Please model this.
Amino acid sequence: MTTDTIDQIIDKHQCEASSLIQILLDIQSENHWLPKEALERVSVRLDVPMSQIQHITTFYKSFSLVPRGRHEVHVCMGTACHVRGAQRVLDSVTEQIGIGPGETDVDLKYSLETVNCIGCCALGPVMVVDGEYHGNITPAQVAETFKNYE
Amino acid sequence: MSDLILQIDGREVIARPGATILEAAQSVGIAIPTLCHHEKLEAHGGCRICSVEVDARGRTSVVAACLYPVEQDLVVRTRTGKIERIRKSLVEMMMAHAPDSEQLLALAEEYGADRDRFEKDASFCIHCGLCVRYCAEIKKKHAVGFIDRGPRKEICFIPEIASKECWECKECFPLCPTSALQAAFVLIKSLTFPTDTPDSESK
Model:
């Protein structure tokens, strides 16, 4: 991610320190994670100390300080999904993309996370890829789903 | 605005508007224990050891004295059975993190807290935020900050700033109610200056 792109994002938010979280979210969605150089740039431009940025970026789970893949895969492990076989879905996903929960593959293609509930228990078991919900998914359908992602 | 009159432990106390219960109590010599409070810093309300009982607007509630502003005719009780129990539990919980802190040991003695009530999780930090706030508000260096949250929250020096600033300063060390701060600095020092620190190998 270049300094120019970061500056564009910062300028979009009028370089306001109060927009810090929004700026970080924008960088996160563009780049999938927050590299240290980007945070330093934000710190300088907004005149917000690095300690505060560190506090915020480690506080919220949506921020990642380590590289993430282009596609974010979330498998719901909530109670409803759990009883409907979330573990088997997760195993199938792990087998399919070759990484466990909390991991990112070497090509930076996928990151896998388990989540505790995404609030649509009626669809369980649920897998979310890049914000797209795959409800009532079976382990057998998992392989099919991942064919559509580059 | 004129001064306000309130009652603390049955005594009439006159305080200026905007003062906190803690300041009003201190002005007449009523002691309220504190851990995260520092007169030069913004109130933080992190440790809650200064909890007191107040009667305001027809109800009784427990508030942090270091944050709660005085009101006309406020009734404050700093030492009731309920308050003592709250403080005792707080000390016990903090002692799970920093069992040998002198300030905590003194409080434990006063409130009869059991040092070993909770399983030890010796992080040595009780999240008082004194170092973080001192560095930010007084020194304006922002060399130390909090990271993470909940049970994993801890203090962390920013190596780039700490390596330049902290060497000469270290003013936050005596503020720490436990020994966590020094430990964290020693850690970051050992990472930032791997071998040739002035006082590591020479002794």
